[in-house]
Amino acid sequence: MIRKTALSIGLLAASVALIPASCARDADLLDPARFPSDGAVFKDAFAAQVGYAAFQDSKLDALSVDPTGGPDGSAALKISVPAPGDPTGGFAGGALVAGMARDLAGYDALTFWARASRSATLDMVGLGNDNTGGSRFGASRSGVQLSSTWRKYVVPIPLSDRLALERGLFQFADAGEGGVGYEVWFDDIQYERVGTIAFPRPVIPRQTLTEEVGRTVQIQGTSVVFDVGGSDQTVTASPAYFTFMSSDSNIARVGTDGRVSIVGAGTATITAKLGSATASGAITFSTTAPPTTAPPVPTRPASEVLSLFSDAYPNATVDTWSTSWDQADVADVQVAGNAVKRYSNFGYAAIEFSSQTANASATSHIHLDLWVRDAGNFRIKLVDFGANGAYGGGDDSESEVTLTPATSPALKAGAWTSIDLPLSAFPLLQSRSHLAQIIIAGSSPITYLDNVYFYLASPAAAAPTPSVPAAQVISLFSNAYPNVAVDTWSASWDNADVADVQLSGNATKRYTNLVFAGIEFTSHPVDASTMTRFHMDIWTPYPTAAPAALRVKLVDFGANGSFGGGDDVEHELAFTAASSPPLATGSWVGIDVPLSAFTGLTTRGHLAQLIISGDPRVVFVDNVYFYRTAPTAPTVAAPVPTVPAGNVISLFSNSYPNVAVDTWSAGWDAADLADVQIAGNDAKKYSNLMFAGIEFTSAPVNAAAMTHFHLDIWTPDPVDAPAAFRVKLVDFGADGAYGGGNDVEHELAFTATSSPALASGSWISLDIPLAAFTGLVTREHLAQLLFVADPSGPKTVYMDNVFFYRAGQLTAPLAPAPTPTLPAANVISLYSNAYANVPVDTWSAGWDAADVEDVQISGNAVKKYTNLVFAGIEFTSAPINAAAMPHFHLDIWTPDASAPPAAFRVKLVDFGANGGYGGGDDVEHELAFTATTTPALATGSWISLDIPLSAFTGLTTRAHLAQMLFVADGSGPKTVFVDNIYLHR
Amino acid sequence: MKAKPQRRALLALTAAAVACLAACASPSDEGAHDWQLVWQDEFEGPAGQLPAATKWRFDIGTDWGNAQLEYDTGRPENASLDGAGNLAITARREAWLGRSYTSARITTRGLFEQAEGRYEARIKMPRGKGIWPAFWLLGANQTTTGWPACGEIDITEFRGQNPSTVLGTVHGPGYSGTGGIGRQFDLAQDRFDTGFHTFALEWTEASLRWYVDDKLYQVIRPGDLPAAWVFDHPFYIILNVAVGGGCVGAPDASTPLPQAMLADYVRVYQSAGRP
Q: How far does B170 lie from chain A, in Å, by closest CA?
C-alpha cells in the first residue's frame, strides 16, 4: 500500500490539468447562492471548467480520456495504475478540480461508475480535495472493490451543507497490487441526491491522549458510517465536517477543523456531532504541565563519564534517538535552557549508536534523567553488538531493566527522576564494549530524557580514617600511616587495572576490570608476626547480593623471604553479603579480620603478596594495613622514673619511698580501684572511672619545694576528642584541714591533642609543672588528688609513679633521711631523731678541716657539713663498746658531684683497752664510697651507708670506739648532710 | 398528539386509478369504491401501554414455519404504544426461552375478521439486515383448513437490508412460500425506514390491489393465479416484526437493535356497495 499521508499535501506541483482552470475570480467575494450547483463532474467528458491535478509523487500521466471506454461506448476516464516500483510514480492519484467553486449542498452523495481491467481494490476515492493543500472538507472511501464490469459507486457526503463552496469534486488514489499495475475507468462522475443514504453514525476515535499544556493537537481519524440502501458504508470525513465540544475549555479548546489547543492541566473530553447526530467515541485529553525545570546538572568528573546526551559533557556520536522502526516521536526541546529529548507518542524508542559503538567496559553505571507523566513503568534495554561490533553474528546480547514506582530507583510522575543503574543490573549483557543501542519503553506517552551517560561510580567520601595507633600498625596503603614500600599494586601477571584516585583529598586505589589483582611487596616483605589483624577498606558499586564474593589472599614467602623454596604459605578469605563483615554495595566495607582467620598462613614473618579477586569488577581500596590490637591492660611496667629519689615526694611508686596515703579511692568518689601488678611492678587500676579521690589528709604533702607533679597512666580506651582525663590537686591551706576558707585547688585536662597528649594503649607520662596548676596558690598542705574522666574520658586507667618532684640540682635534701625502723634496743645511736643518742663530745673537733651546723629538714635534725676536707667527731668522753653491734649505719646526702673519682670516706677509731688516745692500742679503719661502690655514692639523694663493722678490717678492737672521721679530701663532696648515725645489730 | 392525516379515499382512489391506468390494463370492475371505515386503531395512548386487547391479541411463540429467530412475546417491551400516537413493535437482542432475539406478533384473530375491503396502515419500517416486518392478512379458517388453503395476503413485507423495497404477495394452495405470487415496489430516492409510508390493499371479489403511498403497483385477479382463488372468506390482520427467517436471512453485527416498526394506524374499510 502506498503512503496516503502524501495525498492530503496535494500541491499543484503536477499541473497536468487536462482542461485549463480558467476561473480567475476570488471565490470568497462571491455570494454563495450564485455558485453553480451543477452536479456533473465527468460524464463522457469533463464538465465545464473541471480539470485534473495529479497528486504529488504520483504517476503524473496516469490519467487520460479513453474515447470509447465508457459503459455505453462513449468516452471515460482511464487511469493507469502503476506497478510497484514504476519509475514514473508509485501510485496513480489526483483530483478533479472545478475552476469555479460549486455549491453542492443539495446533494447527498458523489456517485460514479467504475471498472478495472481486473478485480482490484481502489485504495481511495472521494471528494473535497482541490489539491491545493488548503481543502478542509475531504471525504473518501477506501478499499473499494472494483471488478472488470461497470458498477455504480456511491460516496455519501458526510454533511452536505459544508460543501456550499467546493472546488475539489473528485479525488482518487490507487497503487498496483500483487506486483502489477492495471487500469481503472471512471465515468458518470456526478453529485446526486440518492435518497437511500440514511442513518449517519459519525465516529471519532475513542481514545485517551496524553498531552501537555501549550501544545496543539489535530484530531484525526474521524469518519461517518452511513446506511446506503441497507448496507453500512464508512466514509472517512475530515474533522472540519464535525462540531466539537470540550468538557472543559480551561483545559482543551477545539479550534477550527478539529485543532485542539491544550491550555490547562487536567482532563478534558472532546465529543462531537455531525450536524445533529452525536458522534460515537470521545477523545480524552489527559494533560499536564511540561517540565519547567532542568534535571540536576551532572557533577561527575568528565573523565569518568561516557556521555551520549548531556549539556554537561562532550557526547559520543549517536546515530539516532528514534529509529525508523520504533514507536515514538522525538524532538529536541529546551527545558529551562537545557537541551532535552522529548518523546511523544511514546511506546518504545530505539537510540542507536551502532556506527560508533560505545565501549562502556570501564564504567560501572548508566545514568539518565527521566521525566514521565505516567509512572506505570519504564524499561531500559542495553544492546551490545558483541566483538564483531555489528548487529547479528551470534555475539549480540541484551538485557533490560524495568522501573516502576516500587523499584529502586522509583519512577516518579511529573518530576525528574535521576536513574542510576549499575551495569550489573543488566545481567544478560555479555559484553559492554560494543554497546550499540539503548531501547527505552514505557507507559508514559510523553517522556523527557536528559543526561544519558555511562559512568564509573565512586564513593562519595573517603574511607573512614583508621584509629588504630600508628605504633600498632604496619601499613601498606593509608593516608593515616607511614606506608611500607609496595612494589606494585597490580602485578604484570594479574587481570585488573588500577588507578590512584583522590576521594576528598584522600588517596585511594581504584581497581577496574577486576578479575584478580596482585599486590606485591616482595622487595620488602612485611613481618607481621607481632600483628594480630588485617584491615582493608573496600567500596564497590557492584551488586553484592549472594553469591557475589570478594576474596582476599595473603601470601607469606616463608623464612627464605622469596617465592618458592617450599616454605611459602597462603590463605584466602571470601567475603559475601552473608560474611562478617558483610559485603555491601555503594558503601565502604571495613574488612577487619584476625590474622588467625587466615588459617593456612602459618607463618607471617615474610608476607609478600596480597591478592584481591572476586565478582565485583570495580573496587576502591583504602587503608590496607596489618595491626596489632591494643591490649586491654599494659604488658610492661611504666617507665622507671629517673628523678633522683631526693628530688621526689612520692605518693605511689616502686622506685621511691612513698608517703602515707589515706585512700586511693575515697568513699565519696565514683570509681573502682584495684591494686595490680604489671610485669612485677605495682600499679593502680581504676575502672568505671568517673572521678577518683585520693586522700592524704592525715599527712598533707608539703610540695613547696617541688616543681612538678608526675604520674604515668595507661588506658585501653579510645582517647579521640572529646575524651579527656583530668587531674586535680587540692591544698588544704595553712590549717591543714578541709575547709576553713584557705583551701585551694586546680584541675588540668589532658586530651589527645594536649601536651602531653593522651594516647590509648601505651604508657603516657604526665609530667606537669606545678605552676600549671594556677589555682593552686599554696601547696604546703596538699591533701587530695582527683582523677576525673567524666563524661567522655577513659573509663579504665592504669596508674603508676605518682609523685611530686623538684627538677634540677638541690643544695639540700628536700626530705629527711628515711626514718630508721630498727628497735631502739638493737641500736646505739650517735645521731638520730629516732633514737636516744649517746653523748658526743664534738661534731667537729678543733683539729679538723670542716664546718658543721645543725639544720632541720622537715622537722628532722640533720648535721650539715660544709667545706669538708675532713671532719672529726669525737666521743672520747664516753667511748662506745660496739662489741654487740656488728653494723654501722649512716645516711648521707650531698649536692655535690659524685662521679668518680669523687669519694666519701668514713673512718672509725678505737682507742683500745686503755680507753685513751695513744698507748699503742689504738686501731682504726677507713672505708671509701664512690659512685661505683656498694652502697654507691650519689648526688642529691639520701644514701644509706649500712656497713658491717667487719668491713673495717683494721678495726681489730671496737670496745672503745671514740672517733669517727668523714673525709672528702681531693675530689670528695664538700657539702654533706648526715643523719641517723648509729651502730646496730 | 400529532395530527393524523385522515385519508380521503376518493382522492386517493383517483390518484391510484391514474397510477393504475398508467401501470396496467385496468379492468372494468375497478371503478371507484365508496370505502366506509369499519375498523381502526389509531394507537393513541400512553407510552408502554399494550395494544388494545379488544382489537389485538398476541401470538406468542417462535419460528412460525419461517425459521424466524426471534421469540415473540406478549410484553410491552416488544409491543406497546410509544405515546406519540404509534404502535411500536420492537425487536430486541436478548436471550429468551432459548432464542437470542425477542419481538412481537399481534393479530385481530377472533376480534376482527373480514372478507374484502380496504386495509391500510401507515408505517415506518425498522431497519437493518435480517429485520423482516410485515403487515398482512391470514385466512380466518386457517385452523380448520390449514395453510396455505386458508389463504394469505401480504399487504407489505420489508427486508431491512433492502430499505427502499417492499413486497406485496399472495399465498394460496399451489402458490405458497417461495411460490407465492407477488411483486416488489421500489421507492425512488427514498427508503421505508426513514419515514412513514402508507401501505394499502384493496380487495374485492374481482381483484387484489396493492398501494404504497396511494400508488398502485400490483393488481392480481383470479385469472392471474396458477390455482384456486381462496380470497372469498374472512381474514384477520397481522402486524409483526420477524428477526431472521428464510425470507430475509439472519441479522449480523451491523444490525442495530433494538429496532422498532412504528404503526401510526391501521384502518379497515368496507365497500359501501357491499351488503
A: 25
Mutate: best of A152, A196, A231, A280, partner B, most B CBs <10 A: A196
| Total domains in the fold of chain B | 1
* DSSP reduced 3-state for B177: helix
Round to whole Å and give the CA distance between A382 and A436. 8
CB contact under 8 A, B127 and A199: yes
What residues of chain B have any CB closer than 8 angstroms to a CB in chain A? 127, 129, 159-164, 188-191, 193-194, 254, 256
Catalytic residues of B: 152, 157
- B163 and A232 in contact by Cβ < 8 A? no
Domain that holds residue B109: 39-271
Question: For residues A214 and A342, is the Cβ–Cβ distance under 8 A?
Answer: no
Residues 6 or more apart whose CB falls under 8 angstroms from that of A642 comprise none
CA-nearest residue to A226 within chain B is B254
CA–CA separation, A465 and B80 (whole Å) = 94
Cα–Cα distances (Å) from A223 to A139, A240, A247, A486, B257, in that order, read 8, 11, 21, 81, 22
List Cβ<8 Å contacts ≥24 apart for A482-490: A484/A521, A484/A524, A484/A526, A485/A521, A485/A523, A485/A524, A486/A519, A486/A520, A486/A521, A487/A520, A487/A521, A487/A522, A487/A523, A488/A518, A488/A519, A488/A520, A489/A517, A489/A519, A490/A517, A490/A518, A490/A519
What CATH number is attached to the domain comprising B156?
2.60.120.200
pTM above 0.80?
no
CB contact under 8 A, A232 and B254: yes
B56 occurs within a structural domain: yes
- Nearest-CA distance A157 → chain B (Å): 15
Residue of A152, A199, A225, A233 for testing the chain B interface, max B β-carbons within 10 Å: A199
Decide which of B1 and B184 is more confident. B184
CB atoms A196 and B160 under 8 Å = no
Q: CA nearest A84: which of A1, A184, A172, A171?
A: A1
Residue B173 domain-assigned?
yes
Instruction: Give the mean pLDDT of A844-851.
Output: 92
Q: ipTM, 2 decimals?
A: 0.83
Residue A29 and residue A24: Cα distance in Å, rounded?
12
State pLDDT tens for residues A534-578. Answer: 999 999 988 788 888 999 999 999 988 888 888 999 999 999 999
Nearest CA in chain A to B253: A232
Mean pLDDT rounded to a whole number for chain A: 90
Cβ within 8 Å, pair B164-A196: yes
* Cβ–Cβ below 8 Å for B127 and A230: yes
The per-residue pLDDT for range A465-498, each reduced to its tens digit, is: 998 888 789 999 999 999 999 999 999 999 999 9
Q: Measured between alpha carbons, how far is A370 from A977 in angstroms, rounded to an integer?
A: 94
CB A171 within 8 A of CB A127: yes
| Tally of CA atoms within 13 A in the half-sphere of A664 that contains its CB | 18
The pLDDT-based confidence of A326 (bands split at 50, 70, 90) is very high
Tell whether B250 is covered by a domain. Answer: yes
- Euclidean distance between CA atoms A547 and A120, whole angstroms: 65
Inside any domain, residue B241 = yes
Q: B163 to chain A: which residues are within 8 Å by CB?
A: 196, 198, 227, 229-230
Chain A residues lying within 8 Å of B195, measured CB to CB: none
Q: What's A715's DSSP letter?
A: B
Cβ-defined contact of B163 to A227 (cutoff 8 Å): yes
Least Cα distance to A213 among A373, A415, A417 occurs for: A373
Distance from CA of B249 to the nearest CA of A (A): 13
**Exposed/middle/buried for residue A15 (C-beta within 10 Å: 0-12, 13-18, 19+):** middle
Q: Select from A465, A454, A550 the least CA-distant residue to A503.
A: A465
